[in-house]
Amino acid sequence: MAYMSQEGYDKLVAELKHLESVERPKASAAIAEAREKGDLSENSEYDAAKEAQAHLEDKINRLKVTIAEAKVVDTSRLSTDAVQILSKVEMTNLTNKAKMTYTIVSESEANLREGKISIKTPIAQGLLNHKVGDEVEVKIPRGTIKLRIDKITVG
Mind spelling out the 3-state secondary structure of 110-144? Predict the structure, then answer.
């Protein structure tokens, strides 16, 4: 089960709809076009189109599973007492005094450019269940960083 925001869930549903209604017919058309070019045993275009379709179907099936297992979190019921999924955490890296803000989201919603990190990342794992003012040490691939939680809001 993956906890996610309504926005994240809606994006997944829209992506699935697009793949099924736009990309799937394109893939079928590409196969039909390649099939018309004759002998299928030596038709690399046909093989490539079939492989692309298989990848598309795999992606559609994975999305369907993610959507089926999704649990939309009612953000109005979230607490800001401690860090949890969908918490927006403002923190200070105590080593270099850099300020950072991340929202902790499900893996499928993670997007670093938007400041959304997966709950499975080392930083998110290190912050979970901690409160404002807590200093936590987080092991990351480059070593250990020390973070102080400055503020928790609902993302």
Answer: CEHHHCEEECCCHHHHHHCCCCCCCEEEEEECCEE
| Coil/strand/helix, residue 107 | helix
Are the beta carbons of 134 and 74 closer than 8 angstroms? no
Tokens representing residue 64 in the block: 């369907």
Token pair 């906890």 is found at 3
- Quote the CA–CA distance of 132 and 118 in Å, as a whole number: 20
Q: Which residue has the tokens 């089960």?
A: 1
The tens digit of pLDDT for each residue in 101-122 reads 999 998 888 999 999 999 999 9
13-63 tens-digit pLDDT: 999 999 999 999 999 999 998 888 877 677 788 889 999 999 999 999 999
- Residue labelled with tokens 């503020």: 151
Rounded Cα–Cα distance for residues 96 and 93 (Å): 6
pTM: 0.72
Which two three-digit tokens encode residue 53? 């379709």
Q: How many CB atoms lie within 10 A of CB 123?
A: 20
